[in-house]
Amino acid sequence: MSKARAGDKEAFGQLVTAFQTRVFRVAYGIVGHKEDAEDIAQDTFVKAYRSISDLNADVTFYNWLMRIVANTSMNYKKSMHRQQFVPMDEVAEPVDQGETPEEAMERVEGNARVTALLAALPSEHRAVLALRELGGFSYDEISDILNIPLGTVKSRMNHGRDKLRGLVMKGGVKQ
Fold it and tell me: What is the pTM of this model?
């Protein structure tokens, strides 16, 4: 980390390798479009590289990076208003070697349903859910990443989950 802060491109490249999948997943969870998420992930790392020397020592690189990807994704979503979504089965995922073909198909079908459901949510709900479920962040971390109060995170999480439940009860959304 300190080498990357000092401008070492190879050290920064190692950080990219370590976090690229997570950055992509969070971007995808927010924008719901594979190519856009790839562009956002690339933009995120460019922004991070350009400003890593300014990274506050009190903030972890990962949380700082997730703030960049979340903000970049939400800004993109606001500017493009794109509602085209690619099923999660088209997103590169690690293959579970112990998974049977039937289990793999169930996982892919489940991912497609989740993607369609997330796509139906407003971006602020999608963002907190993506950070929580795809990024594995705590509510406090999400509050820090999105720079919103903890109460707002909890509210958006509850409203997002309620909306998801409502969609599931209605039989989902058209894919």
Answer: 0.67
